[in-house]
Request: fold
Amino acid sequence: MLLGIDVGGTFTDAVVIQDGQVLASAKTPTTHGELLAGIITVIDKVLTNIDRVAIRRVALSTTIVTNALIEGKIDQVALLLLPGPGLNLEGLTPGQPHFLSGYTDHRGREQAALVKQEVITVCHELGGMQAAAVVGKFAVRNPAQEQQVASWVQEYLKPAQITSGAELSGSLNYLRRINSAYYNSAVWRIFTNFAAAIETAIVERGIAAPVYILKADGGTLPLPAAQNRPVETIFTGPAASVLGIMALANPEESAISLDIGGTSTDIALWQNGVPLLAPGGASVNNYPTAVRSFWLCSVGIGGDSYVRREDTGLLVGPMRRGPAMASGGAEPAVTDALRVAGLIDYGDEALAKKAMASVAASNQTPADAAWETLRVAVNTVCQAIGAMLSEQAARPVYKVEDIVHGETFTPELLIGVGGAARGLAPLVAEQLSIPWQVPPGYMVANAIGAASARPTTEITLRADSAEGYYTVPELGIKQPVDKRKFSLAAAWTAAEAHLAQRAAAGGIADAAQVSERVYEEEFNVIRGFNTIGKIMTCKLQLKPGVLMPVQAGEAGNEQ
Reply:
């Protein structure tokens, strides 16, 4: 059995899945002051009459990192950079960077030596800081200098956490690696404390299964591994909804998916049966990172979005003032409009009519006000979808095959999940003039997505046969090779072995069965009109996705 838990902005949900069937589900209000309390409550609810010994995995989608970043409750970070010549990074990074001598070139060859005294001086200046990040521009080609600086920082600053940029990403984008490393260290303490509390709560409830945390790209990390890379757990709520749709509906045509919760609607685009990924990686506080993430847009329209009438007209969202009046709240909300319009059958109809009457114009009935509310909400969502479609159409094309065989993204289906999906999704689809679907289990799709998420990890191997070595930056490896015999095929073989090694260290078995090649590059090294070797790059990952399709009860109508 699999236990999945999703901490949303309004509710915390949990499901138990066995052999692709939802055995039990539960829902409780999210406790924003102390997330752990709500998680414990929903676990206790969902495990009623469930054999806890039979649970073999717990997977959690949590807002702990996202909330810490939004609220600014993060640690200060000693940011030490090895930039070499090139871009001036002043003002481009979170925190205050400290620039060090020492430089490795684009082929991984040391061009300037480190100066240990510089590191010691910075450590003395920053004495007392409990978090640090060390990032070299070309450390993905040779992590030796980055590793040496990190060891000196550990010796003289003694922080609780040091993040090396190359361990988080094997990609070249230096600025993204800097920001990823900075935020990874900044949230490390709060995530580590949360992880320890989760482990204790799970054990106290008689569950012996390993705990996994969802990542922004839809994969999962074992909890011990996530404690070293907590930045990868940002935006896990939207990722959970994408995986929930993959498990419940698995669209093969070009599609738009909406996760319509109490506070917001998360929008994703699907093409050729897979959700699109954010180009380059996710952004945190407007700083680009190297964290792989689904391409998502969040808009402040949900079932509990506050409805009010002002001088400019009727306004819906983006704030929430508690639950809708139909659900016992004090202020009008979108759910009240859905109830009055007859699009949902839960909540107190009399209170919903009272809510809509309070925002009605002088010549409107409560029903008129309800439909006006829904038009405003649907227009807001459709505008966000239109912006995503325009951005998708404007993306640059880099490869000849994309020019020749490239597809124009034209949505053919809209899929809705989340509490308000049954009411709002058909209205959005009608405005877009496409069919719609609200699959069974839509109310707890995010928890289903967390429970069924496949464990993932990735590695990047870069070989320089002219110099006689390859590196795997995520593992801190620099390995000698035979200059004359090492080939691209040998590079892929080595990459597969290292991926299996990293997967096994994270508790992931059978890595070869779900691995996929993400990127490949090979070019000659020329010196004196002679080819003296090759530069080869291989990127390999365990493919994100779901372990199985999931069957659940209660479906919305389809069209």
Remarks:
- Residues 69 and 285 are 8 Å apart (CA to CA).
- Residues 555-559 have pLDDT under 50 and may be disordered.
- The first helix runs from residue 35 to 46.
- The first strand starts at residue 2 and ends at 7.
